UniProtKB/TrEMBL annotation:
Annotated Low complexity bias: 25-41
This protein's GO CC annotations: membrane
SUPFAM superfamilies in alphabetical order: Cupredoxins
Molecular function, one GO term: electron transfer activity
Top-rank taxon: Archaea
Keyword DNA damage: no
PROSITE patterns referenced in this protein's UniProt entry, alphabetically: PROKAR_LIPOPROTEIN, TAT
Compartment list: Membrane
Pfam families documented for this protein: Copper-bind, DUF5059
Keywords from the named record: Copper, Electron transport, Membrane, Metal-binding, Transport
Location of region: Disordered: 25-46, 670-701
UniProt name for this protein: Plastocyanin
Length: 810
């Protein structure tokens, strides 16, 4: 103990200097379901006799590591990426990890309180990061870990849990090592500090100290050296020290319990290293998917241009503008990613563009066709981006719409211009792509500037013909959105929104030229160039830094739009050429922002494979199941190569690791690994369907709308009149149900539930078979005829308190 106290005295000042709130071992189970050594389900055998349960308990460590990674990203200033990682971990992977030996179902059956506590904490990590509160995210991540530890103790026994806890701290150290290897010395220091703080009160602390004093001291000193080196900015020393800590924690785990359970945990720890690579790759900058989404956002603006140009009387030019979007898309880099990510959105977008061209030519149905184009592009953008990235692109699109209104007003159509602003504001008010809520929560001042000071006053200024006020409000609203974007994201992401705005202005110039105002067209292009030269939220500098050739081509193409307008050439062709250069610029900026960390991420994945070659779990896996062994080894190279090519899918490692974990635990065939396309780790889930009264979108005739958020109805209580129709719309999270409590609705009321079931038992059975689900883009609709209180709940989220009440009055 003396050496430990000396170590703490030596590093105490360093810990304080980082200033990150320590992670206490709080948030575990608190009710009668809490586990003790006496009531642990498998006793104190360390995992030898628990069979495949050891593999499941090991997989819970991966969820610990991934939530810790998310919190670490937030502490490093990448809260948006961390929030997306936390959301993916819980909403996509854990929620889908079903099956007999899936992580989700086993946790729920092992300890209901640990299950509920983990889900609440996982959601807490996500929500804290969305709010930019990294300290709370760290606390929630440790709460999630505490609940999983409780479940591990119940499932495989106290000793096995201690060994898994030691391996979880190996995962913490591995995260610090990955960050240091990527040159992120300061981030490695934060990760090391977080691990040291959490270790002080963790079960592994005393267990490792008792079982392997040398490993215990080496682990603490290794993390302390990582912290010190990171603070000095010495990434190489931090990397070396973190590697020492990883090895020490693994040695400590085997000293605590040299069993197949620890071997399964060791394999899961290597899986966590692949997720470290994924997190590192995300830290480096936006992915190519963000570039694809920026292209789709520009298509949104171009479709809007076709509509307003048609409305202004140039229907032939407008029809050509519309179909050119589809022609452009066919050869775009975004084509295949959209088709693969959201096939329905892909088909809906293409069909919508064709319908838009036909509607413009026919002179009717333009609004419906435009809505089809836009709705499907929004769906595609959501599928390809993080939440913050989607907001960034929405700010660019909203500015594009303000540009359209500017041109309508300039042409003397004040009423059309005012209506366009009002339509834009309605998009904002319904929180399209999250822009409204994010702006309001990020900066109340900017929110009020945008909404109250400028957008709210703009329609009246237009209708009153107050040119000075119109200019002031248009410029003010656009500036507020640009400033907001710069506050919530780094330049590489802001660049995507700026490219949408500038590209839209180039096509505005083409639209104005089609309406025979070439002088104005040249002015629009010149203004766009002046905006770019003025910085454009850092886009100018980012393009120049990423690729000088692209930078010059971008500027020449934009100048070409203006000169073509003045010289009598095809402004639309010039704008199309500029659009291509703008896309190239965005992809170059993205590549420049993330290239170095992409290479580092691939190196982390390959490093995990090298470590496996000398790992104590290597030979046991090879002997247990040679096919699982070979698949596990090859998965790391497959993933590393995918990272380098921009197609990396970490799930290939997850699936191979699960098979390997179950192999060393005694039965590879029991691994909950379904179709390779499954997003979760479990066997494929029943195909979800809504059934009667589950519709697409929100019906126009709904009297009331209730949002179904991740684990709550909003509002949870609603008073309506008899005969009113209520729509519950999916707003966040996984699929939901709306299921009446059979005994808590008026006695003379007909039973109601999403799926059209006639009883609560039927609704629960239906849900188990995928029926009665309300998914993204859908609503459940019910008309209330019977007065009284109607209480209801969401079947998959009942344990998290997702319940509601409808009070029906005469």
């Amino acid at each position: 103990m003396q050496r430990r106290r000396e170590f703490l005295q030596a590093t105490g000042a360093a810990l304080a200097a980082v200033g990150l709130a320590g992670c206490s071992d709080s948030g575990g189970t608190t009710d009668g379901d809490a586990t003790t050594a006496a009531d642990a389900g498998s006793g104190d055998d360390g995992g030898d006799d628990v069979g495949v349960d050891a593999a499941v308990a090991a997989q819970w460590n991966v969820y610990r590591a991934r939530l810790a990674d998310a919190a670490a990203l937030g502490a490093h200033g990448a809260s948006d990426v961390g929030a997306q990682l936390a959301a993916t971990t819980f909403e996509q992977d854990f929620e889908n990890a079903g099956g007999e030996h899936g992580a989700h179902e086993t946790l729920e059956t092992t300890s209901e309180s640990a299950y509920e506590g983990f889900e609440q904490a996982a959601i807490g990590v996500r929500d804290a990061l969305r709010e930019g509160d990294s300290a709370s995210a760290i606390e929630q991540a440790e709460s999630a870990a505490a609940n999983l530890r409780d479940a591990q103790q119940r499932l495989v026994g106290e000793t096995a849990m201690h060994a898994l806890d030691a391996l979880a701290f190996a995962d913490h150290a591995a995260t610090a090592r990955a960050l240091a290897a990527a040159g992120q010395a300061d981030a490695a220091a934060v990760a090391a500090n977080t691990a040291l703080s959490a270790f002080e009160t963790a079960p592994a602390h005393e267990a490792m100290e008792s079982a392997a004093t040398d490993a215990y001291e080496s682990f603490e000193s290794g993390l302390g050296d990582t912290l010190s080196a990171g603070q000095r900015g010495n990434a190489d020393d931090a990397n070396s020290a973190a590697a020492t800590a990883v090895s020490a924690a693994v040695d400590g785990a085997y000293a605590i319990a040299d069993t197949t359970g620890t071997e399964a945990g060791h394999i899961a720890s290597l899986q966590s290293r692949a997720y470290d690579a994924a997190a590192l790759n995300a830290m480096g900058g936006p992915s190519s998917d963000f570039g694809h989404a920026a292209v789709l956002s520009a298509y949104r603006a171009r479709a809007q241009d076709a509509a307003w140009v048609a409305d202004a009387g140039a229907s032939d030019a407008a029809a050509s503008m519309a179909i050119s979007v589809l022609e452009d898309f066919e050869g775009a880099a975004a084509h295949e990613p959209l088709e693969e990510t959201d096939h329905d959105a892909y088909e809906g977008f293409e069909g919508g563009v064709e319908a838009l061209q036909e509607a413009i030519t026919a002179g009717s149905g333009v609004s419906d066709a435009l809505s089809q184009v836009d709705t499907n592009l929004v769906a595609g953008i959501k599928a390809l981006t993080t939440d913050t990235e989607a907001v960034i692109l929405e700010t660019g699109f909203l500015r594009a719409l303000l540009g359209d209104a500017r041109e309508q007003y300039h042409r003397g159509n004040a009423e059309r211009a005012a209506a366009s602003v009002e339509a834009m504001f309605k998009r904002f008010e319904r929180d399209e792509l999250g822009a409204h809520e994010t702006l309001e929560s990020t900066s109340e001042s900017l929110y009020e500037t945008f909404e109250d000071e400028h957008v709210g006053a703009l329609p009246a200024a237009m209708r009153n013909g107050n040119d000075d006020a119109v200019t002031t409000h248009l410029d003010g609203a656009r500036s507020a959105l640009a400033e907001f974007a710069a506050q919530i994201a780094p330049t590489a992401r802001v660049a995507g929104g700026e490219s949408v705005t500038i590209t839209a202005r180039a096509f505005d110039a083409a639209g104005v030229a089609a309406l025979d105002d070439r002088t104005r067209a040249a002015t629009v292009a010149d203004d766009a160039m002046a905006y770019f030269e003025g910085g454009a939220g850092g886009f100018h500098e980012a393009v120049e830094a990423s690729n000088e050739e692209t930078y010059h081509a971008f500027e020449e193409a934009l100048v070409g739009v203006s000169s073509t307008a003045s010289d009598g050439g095809s402004v639309f062709d010039a704008a199309t050429g500029f659009g291509a250069q703008s896309r190239t610029a965005v992809y170059d900026v993205i590549g420049n922002a993330g290239g170095d960390l992409t290479a580092a991420a691939a190196a982390v994945a390959r490093g995990a494979l090298r470590d496996f070659e000398g790992a104590r779990a290597h030979e046991p896996l090879e002997e247990a199941d040679h096919d699982a062994y070979e698949a596990f080894e090859s998965s790391f190279e497959t993933y590393a190569s995918g990272l380098e090519s921009g197609t990396g899918d970490v799930s290939v490692v997850r699936r191979a690791s699960l098979r390997a974990q179950f192999a060393v635990a005694g039965d590879a065939s029991a691994a909950p690994v379904g179709d390779a396309a499954s997003s979760g780790e479990g066997d494929s889930q029943p195909e979800l369907s809504g059934g009667p009264n589950v519709v697409s979108g929100v019906p126009d005739d709904a009297d009331h709308v209730i949002d179904m958020n991740a684990v709550a109805y909003d509002p949870a209580e609603l008073t309506v009149s008899a005969g009113d129709t209520v729509a519950w719309t999916h707003a966040d999270g996984e699929a939901h149900s709306v299921t009446a409590y059979e005994d808590d609705i008026p006695a003379d009321a007909t039973y109601w539930a999403s799926g059209g079931f006639d009883s609560q038992d039927a609704a629960k059975t239906g849900w188990a078979n995928g029926k009665g689900a309300v998914t993204e883009g859908e609503s459940y609709v019910h008309t209330f005829e019977t007065t009284g209180e109607h209480e209801y709940y969401c079947i998959p989220h009942k344990n998290l308190g997702m319940e509601g009440t409808i009070v029906v009055e005469e």
